[in-house]
């Protein structure tokens, strides 16, 4: 079809299991406030046409007034109260109950506000909805000022410590938002996912909250501690030997059980969950000039960037990838996700086989810069976080701070910067081995 927004296409694909028809898809793609705004715009356009008297349908064409009325009725927009009096300030507002009915699974497409036209992707209302839904279950992780690390990086640094989040990483934000947004009957048919680590734990944990059966396909070589953690949350673990066919194994499980696949990074509802991290950062540091975010499949940066660019458009969002296996940079260059090298690294969270189609589109619109870090820089980041911020983190969790310490992002001296420390699930032996081999171990605190 002519002029279809690629993001909207990707969102529709991702939402297929949850919507059955076009109106259903639109209701899911737009939140209540976007439907109101769209309805208002369509009404204005129609009024203009009526004023110009060009509203009479051409032969074979549907009456535009009738078409709009049908669309409004089907979208639920026409049931909404009209607030304000007088013809001039006509405004459509969703009553609370309607907003709640649509909101749980609602996803915004780009909100066409003039100043931000093509940038907004996951609407702020949906991220706020996610925050409200998640709040009773998740920790509000601390935003720690990190003066010594900041001095070393030449910036005023604060660290968002998601290593203190439930299950030890940011992942439950997205996983729980997806799981809670599913109709109860759908999730009771079970949840299934594939992951070697943090997402596996997050989905197993979320499934326990909603009391849904859960199966996790994990590579047989996944760290024993992570396999045990997933078991510990009550999920069934399917170990699969061949990493290359992990997704095939997942699809088999999905088909066998009819369970819902909780995607690690390419589900817009999950991205709204990840976006809550951006909300929290800006609530405490509204004057932040840059937020630094690690990139694996791209879900985290897509959610955070969506929130940040709506609340503080001038704040830069900078992504960090592995030098030995970048995904987002090459995908942006190619205009589509491309296969990613899977280097052996301490930052295993940053090694999915490809980035998501939706995160890619969001990155194209909202991410200002992407930098890469070497394995040595990651180890140095882990060590510095331990020494100067007293934080024990995994490689992926250290990547953003590592990039800053290596002065990779282009930032003015003294800029107010927040780095996301995204997780802390790492075996102590691995940390000790890596950190003790680190050449710069002579710092004094
Ligand atoms: C600790 C940690 N940080 C960052 C990421 C990257 O997140 P995303 O795949 O959403 O880009 C992951 C992914 O698993 C992770 O576990």
How would you portray this structure in words?
With 445 residues, the protein is α/β, with parallel strands linked by helices. It has 3 domains: 6-121, no CATH class; 143-170 and 267-436, Rossmann fold; 172-261, Rossmann fold (3-Layer(aba) Sandwich), CATH 3.40.50.1100. 46% of the residues lie in helices and 12% in strands. It has 19 helices and 12 strands. It has helices spanning 6-15, 22-29, 32-51, 64-75, 96-102, 124-134, 147-153, 172-181, 184-188, 198-210, 224-232, 246-257, 268-284, 299-311, 328-334, 357-366, 375-389, 395-405, 428-436; strands at residues 81-83, 91-93, 143-145, 156-161, 191-194, 214-219, 236-240, 260-261, 290-294, 316-322, 369-373, 416-421. The strands form 3 sheets. It has a 6-stranded mixed sheet. Strands 7-6-5-8 form a 4-stranded parallel sheet, sandwiched between helices. Helix 1 (6-15) packs antiparallel against helix 16 (357-366), helix 8 (172-181) packs parallel to helix 10 (198-210) and helix 17 (375-389) crosses helix 18. The longest helix is centred in the first third of the chain and has 20 residues, at 32-51. The chain binds pyridoxal-5'-phosphate (PLP). Residues 169, 171, 197-199, 265, 294-300, 349-350, 352, 394, 396-397, 422-423 line the site of pyridoxal-5'-phosphate (PLP).
